[in-house]
Amino acid sequence: MRRIDTNWLGVAEGYVTMFDHWSEATQMWDGIGERQVRTPIVFEGRFASIPVLHLSPTLIDAHSDTYLRLNIRAEDVSEDGFTLTVDVWDDTRIARLGVNWQALGPLDDPDEKWDV
Prior knowledge:
3-stranded antiparallel β-sheet, Immunoglobulin-like, 116 residues, mainly beta, elongated, single chain
């Protein structure tokens, strides 16, 4: 368990459409094998230390004839942001994918108050 010892808890959140490969078929829809999409996320403010992240898929538009093989993760997490990474493999076909994210951690500047 991680304890955040501060009265200045910051919460950043957002939604990302990782890809929309339906209108113009690309690698996640037509590809075979290992495929990856990466999206950099920059927080509006800076955290005092690396925040705790929560990721949640909110839109998955996948082909019904194949298994859904999907790995969603945060990489290169820092006080300023992270890289949202999605992997699929084998014959998985995904047309659209959306992800909600939330970061929680102590604020870098105690004079900056975020509306939580």
